[in-house]
């Protein structure tokens, strides 16, 4: 966002605690307690529940006026007791909100005190400071993973061949895909966080309010023993990086990769897995890769007509921009509401050779995004459902990816990673562009060229540019 | 009771849960219990849901981004005009602002908003959030300065999240609305003072109210208020009563010549013309948010019977509508939880009487229409209401009969925010032959729970500020077939293998009036009788 612009119009980000909530939902038998006013937990539960279509239970310490004045310590301790009684969790994440941070709550001290004065058995408590004004969901997510690792990983007794995989904020189906790939390489792994089941629980006759699945506490404790950590997060600052901590503290080597979306990004992951495992790339993956390339060739001319705007989570924007680049979809606009130091440079790097310069907006909002979308004749938006507003107002189709997706089903089942997921996503992109063309070309060409005989044939001159515009416009002229 | 609650309920929560027939008193209207996973939101959320539908106002959230992000365009309030209320404006406070105070940023942002060519704010509501309450930004001062500088209204909404429950937020929103109505008051008193003196230092509205009261008394003396119908009256009896009434009216209201008119129709027309020209009755609709056009449906009924709606609070409300609201003869209040406060205050300030009504459910809709007509003491309206009912009721009853055959005997669990919704749902389920086995609300008051207790069968669980564990426990225990609730509750019901009815802020199908009754039955049938339940096998504890 430009320095002059201070007013946020239609936010393209959420706050830190919701990132924390998603991270903790991927820990086995865990619950989250937000230290703050009652509303935060409720709003975030709603936000997550419509995306994942799952019950999302998050407790609050429900600080009231009195707690705000005299401190929320009693509320937090009482909240922990009640939460333990109701849910019997194995891990509790205790995260702060704006309110708790502003009144200066020291959750580390309060929780340490609580531990000392209560028989908690094997229950693990992890504290994360996530003031809503301190960053976006992106920082909240990665910081929580880092704190989980910092506070739970034990001094390794020996080294193993296991690998750690720090997963970005992707869908449960995508976590399952990562697992499938790791298993194809016969790797022993700890994936953190693992929302594969916890945020996409299969229906069973007996509902359990803490869903099965998630990263096991004992696996987290042993992450220091691993042979390597792969962190999927090209833009993650080392202060937010669980992998960086494991490297600094226990000398576990780090492989930092972007999300495996697109051919090149998927290759990066697969090649590293081959290297770490010392195995050949499994035939099934080679086949999937070949099929993806086949699709890329089949669809390249259609894709070449795409003028895309990408927005939302910085990692997703970064990875999808790579997919667009390699398929000729023009990445006209790439934007995130988060404030990420490396966002501009990293994206500038991969789009440097383009004929048309890309617009890269860090720390922006949907007002700015919308202005450019109209100005630069974007014909496809890729991002979360917060872009639906622009779709509704300006008629630019929105292909929903990332978090949150509130107005369509299946967000938890979206699978856009690896060769297979990329193939699916690419088909969705291509089909959207095809639909646009097929729905509009008759009318567009009629409007552009048809002249009744009586009228003068002296038509406006057409240039290369206007020809393109006629073909690619959304059909609102 | 104690043994049926079992271990799933926290001890501190037990007083908030009761079983109908057990002679317990239910505790309610308290701050939520820490760690209990309450379904409630905060003060800010209360203010936001009530005020946000004001369509041409600019709603500026002064706080960190989350507060704006999670409430951006989440209500299904429809508009017939401007839709700027669907755009989220926020000061997006950062760490630095928290340390040094947010007033400067707020001031800058108001300027930015006003100077932006795309926006023409006439009224800006500034919502306070948790941190703003703590760091002590003086919203009033900032707003006052902006008003002076730009000549527009900038109205602070005192909605710091921690400062109470959602109900407090409703009040904060109502105060902001009253603040907006002050404009009218000022304007009118200026005009008034140039013509006549104020009565006893109070404003024109007191005077208006006094005049109205006088005319009401006169009407009463003339026997006009006597026409009241109960549901058991036959149509013929109603018409007879109306004819009698109209004859009487003709005598007193018109010149002597009218007596000679044999033709009742002509008499009616004459009265109609006379009333149209002089005293078309006007009212405000409070506590409707025009979700899925519900306000429009209610307004269409009122218009048809000869009542003009000045302002909806706040569904499809424009700034000018709200400013004109004090001219109404009557306020009708649907969602009492959010708007009764405003009705009371408008009675104090402007002398406008109010009537609690509900257009959710057939029984309530009919009753409400009749009560409004009776309150307005207008014979033509009374008659028109009967005509409207006579036209709309039979097809609805016919359809309901069919749905009743699909739904009778099904067991419903209800957990909603506002008590008026719960009450109307229980009534509607009774009408459909369904049984309410559990009913709870987030923000109900003691009187609401008494009503619910009266309406339900012995054994029904009634709860206040429940959490998912309790909902799960009691739905299982009572063998519920369907849960009625908000967005967060949907996934719980589905995971338990139960049908679910969406009674939320973002619904797309109207639930008020004659149409609403059918929509409700239709959606219940859609979910309860879906083929999937027999395929997947029930997840209930049989």
UniProtKB/TrEMBL annotation, chain A:
Residues 15-433 form the Nitrogenase/oxidoreductase component domain. GO terms for molecular function: nitrogenase activity. The keyword Zinc does not apply. The keyword Lyase does not apply. Transmembrane segments: none annotated. Signal peptide: none annotated. Belongs to the NifD/NifK/NifE/NifN family. This is Nitrogenase molybdenum-iron protein NifN. It comes from Halanaerobium salsuginis.
UniProtKB/TrEMBL annotation, chain B:
The keyword Thylakoid does not apply. Residues 42-527 form the Nitrogenase/oxidoreductase component domain. Coiled coil: none annotated. It comes from Halanaerobium salsuginis. The keyword Ribonucleoprotein does not apply. Keywords: Nitrogen fixation. Belongs to the NifD/NifK/NifE/NifN family. GO terms for molecular function: nitrogenase activity. PANTHER family: NITROGENASE IRON-MOLYBDENUM COFACTOR BIOSYNTHESIS PROTEIN NIFE. It holds the Pfam family Oxidored_nitro. This is Nitrogenase component 1 type Oxidoreductase.
